[in-house]
UniProtKB/TrEMBL annotation:
Domain of life: Bacteria
Designated name of the protein: ABC transporter substrate-binding protein
Entry keyword set: Signal
Family per similarity comment: Belongs to the bacterial solute-binding protein SsuA/TauA family.
TM ranges: none
PANTHER family in alphabetical order: ALIPHATIC SULFONATES-BINDING PROTEIN-RELATED (PTHR30024), TAURINE-BINDING PERIPLASMIC PROTEIN (PTHR30024:SF47)
Entry's localization field: Periplasm
The SsuA/THI5-like domain, residue ranges: 33-246
Amino acid sequence: MAGALAISASACSGSDSAGKSGDAKLKILVSPQPNVTPIYIAKQKGIFAKHGLDVTIMAGQSGSSIVAALQSGGANIGMVNYVTVFSGASHGLKLKFVAQSRVGQPGADGLFTKKGSAIRSMADLKGKKIGVPGMGSVADLVTGLRLAEAGIGPKDVKFVQVPVPNALSALNNGQVDASWLTGTQESQAKTAGNPRVVDVWAGSATGFPIAGWAGTDTWINGHRSAVTKFQTALKEASQLAQNDPQLVRKTLPTFMHLTPAQATSIAIPTTWPTGNDPAAMKRVGDTMTKLGFLDKPIQPQSVLAQSA
């Protein structure tokens, strides 16, 4: 754990680093999902530059790799799911959220089965193997939350960790009976005719806080000006996304492996939250405690960056 929590000298710098133009340099690590579109809009439309930020956007492969990059100084701000940070906080991980990124929206993501499967509903998943992108993650947390609605407990199913790029193939090859699909994988499944048996962000998971933009406590405290500029630019770009869904869909193929046709049909957020929300953090902590992910709730203040 100590190695994973080490922070490089660059991450501990007490002042905002600047490029040749005088703009503060900022390395942002993202997962290629629709909810990060405002970051690309801000870059492509010059919004970051307008607010004095020289931004480099990098693609991450998993929540754990993004956390590791933040801790090592390989990135300054990254999109991280709340469950990962809450779990880490109980073991000394010191990441703080500077803004929201995504909340659960019915119709986005789902548990899919093979064509011709006898699984037709949540109740049919009892005793089955369910592929999720991470263990102890927001995926198996929310799946457990939804399955509880059908009277299915954590011991009634077997979760299997399947990397996002392999989620659809693992399902079709029979490695799992149902698989959590999102983004490109979900779009491909719909095109191929794989049935979605659970809308994971419906029911008790509607509006559930999923992920936010985080950095190390040390980096945030040493770079308050850059954080404020990031928050302002993100809010502006998110408002553009809110007002112009077609701009979102046109931007998606620039960072996701989507055809123009897929970009027009993939589920995109209908709301683009940015401000930190203590009530939302309490919901995450209470749910994690209820389902056994935490021994006791995490206080929202411990994972939210204070305003500059």
